[in-house]
Every structure is written in structure tokens, then in C-alpha cells.
UniProtKB/TrEMBL annotation:
Protein name: PIG-L family deacetylase
Record lineage: Bacteria, Bacillati, Actinomycetota, Actinomycetes, Mycobacteriales
Domain of life: Bacteria
Coiled coil regions, renumbered to chain: none
Pfam families reported in the protein's UniProt record: PIG-L (PF02585)
Stretches that traverse the bilayer: none
Single GO molecular function: hydrolase activity, acting on carbon-nitrogen (but not peptide) bonds, in linear amides
Keywords: Zinc
GO biological process: glycoside metabolic process
Matching Gene3D superfamilies: LmbE-like
Length: 269
């Protein structure tokens, strides 16, 4: 490929790390996409499924990417696994309030459909002990699942999350995403892991080699974050300012204003 030539869908850069070959895909900015370019190899009418352990995870990690996909007429469906009634630092988690926040945030991002699967009013549900049920949920939920959506792209929590619910949902989603013969079960050709709020503090290092330019979509992500009044903090990794700085840092090395980074578990074209 010559210096002035551009790939029709996306630019691929091969990386060699610890003897493992991986792919870093640098997705062009929105202005370039308007000239028949696509984001993540997806085209209008394609579908993406986002698996979120709790309300707000879909926004903190991939919110800008969700907004960009929706703006490019990609259907985005969000499955939130659980919300529970429980004490939390700074207050108490109320399922009704958090459900309203989730719906408002999804509307701000342009989500096509969304659902919360398990609403726990007792605070006794431990999803880390329900691995088989989690896999079934991700595979077969009636509104937002692999069977219901048949997504070309699947976004899941990364393996680097230390929250027990995030670890359980990652393991279940990774298992559910395993490739199957055509016609047997939907197999997403793109499986990406997204960040949680506190995952810079982690003992698990993953290859965050896929970056999406979200410069034009920070306003939508910020609106969605503000919907989570009970979850955002005035300082620290759950503050809107800190999340903005993280996205700015991700974009700075690529000369973008903002970006979101992902772990590419599977890219099949």
C-alpha cells in the first residue's frame, strides 16, 4: 500500500508482544467516515451487543463508542446483568432509581434497546456463583442477547476488572462468545473488552491495542454519565472529570481529542 493510499474500511497495524502477534486497529475520525468508511468494520444496519455487569458500566467504558456507532446507524443493544438493593460507599443502591438512570443514559447514547436482567430487591443475589446462568443469559435473553440480537460486534467487560461481578460477567461472556458452526449459534466476528472505572488499579495487564476516536461524541458520553447521579463522584476514578481525562489521555497519543481503548479478543474479517 502506497503512502497516500487508505484502506476502504480500517487501517491495520501488526504488533508483536511477548512472541504473540496481535492487531491494533486505528479507526479514522468521523469526518473520514463520511466518505464511505465504517467504524470497526461495521456498516449501517449492523448490530452491536454490549454486556454490562451493572448500570453505568456501559457508559463509563464504551459510552463514546456506543454513541458513535448509533450515530453511524449501527444498532446498539445493551444487556445489563443486575442491579441490587444494597449499601454502597456514599449511600445506598436503589434498584428503581438506578433503573431510571440506566434508561436515561441509554437514551443519551442512542441505544436501540436495553434491558436489566436480574433486579435484586433483597441484596442477596451473588452472580459470581451463577456462572452457568450467566452464560445462558448472555446467549438467550429475550431482548438483548446473542440469540435475540445476532450481533456482528460484542462488547464485554475486560478480564482486568477486579470487581467480583465484572470477573463473573467477563468469564461468562467470553464463554458465550466462543465460535460455533454457521446456523448453530450466532458468532460475533468482533469481540472487544472495555474498561471499568477503576481498572488502572489492577494486577492484570491486557493488550489495549484497539482505539476508537470518540472526539465528536464526548458530549453524549458526558450526558449519559450525568444521568448516573447516584454513581458519579466529585473526585477519583468515578468522577466525570477523571473519566474525561482518561479518554483524553487515550486520544492524545493518536492526536485525537478523545478516544476509548479496547482489548481485541477476536477480530475476524
Amino acid at each position: 500500500m502506497g503512502r497516500n493510499e487508505h484502506p476502504s474500511r480500517c487501517q491495520r497495524i501488526s504488533c508483536d508482544c511477548a512472541n504473540n502477534i496481535a492487531a491494533a486497529w486505528i479507526i479514522k475520525g468521523h469526518a473520514v467516515l463520511e466518505s464511505n468508511h465504517s467504524i470497526l468494520g461495521l456498516v449501517p444496519g449492523d448490530r452491536a451487543l454490549v454486556i454490562a455487569p451493572h448500570p453505568d458500566d456501559e457508559t463509563i467504558g464504551p459510552g463514546g463508542t456506543i454513541a458513535r456507532l448509533a450515530a453511524d446507524r449501527i444498532e446498539v443493544h445493551v444487556l445489563c446483568v443486575t442491579v441490587r438493593s444494597a449499601p454502597m460507599w456514599g449511600g445506598r443502591s436503589d434498584p428503581a432509581t438506578r433503573t431510571q438512570e440506566f434508561e436515561k443514559a441509554c437514551a443519551a447514547l442512542g441505544v436501540t434497546s436495553s434491558a436489566i436482567a436480574w433486579v435484586d430487591e433483597t441484596g442477596e443475589l451473588d452472580i459470581s456463583n451463577r456462572r452457568r446462568a450467566l452464560v445462558d443469559l448472555i446467549e438467550r435473553h429475550e431482548v438483548a442477547s446473542l440469540a435475540a440480537v445476532r450481533p456482528q460486534a460484542l462488547f464485554i467487560p475486560s478480564a482486568s476488572g477486579f470487581h467480583q461481578d465484572h470477573q463473573a460477567v467477563h468469564a461468562a461472556a467470553f464463554a458465550a462468545a466462543r465460535a460455533q458452526p454457521p446456523g448453530l449459534k450466532p458468532t460475533s466476528h468482533l469481540v472487544l473488552g472495555y474498561r471499568g472505572a477503576e481498572e488502572r488499579w489492577s494486577s492484570h495487564n491486557e493488550p489495549w491495542w484497539l482505539h476508537v476516536d470518540t472526539s465528536n461524541y464526548w458530549h453524549a458520553k458526558e450526558e449519559a454519565l450525568r444521568a448516573y447521579g447516584t454513581q458519579m463522584r466529585t473526585a477519583g476514578p468515578r468522577s466525570i472529570r477523571q473519566i474525561q481525562l482518561m479518554d483524553a489521555a487515550a486520544g492524545s497519543s493518536l492526536s485525537w481529542e478523545y478516544a476509548e481503548s479496547f482489548v481485541p479478543y477476536r477480530i475476524a474479517c
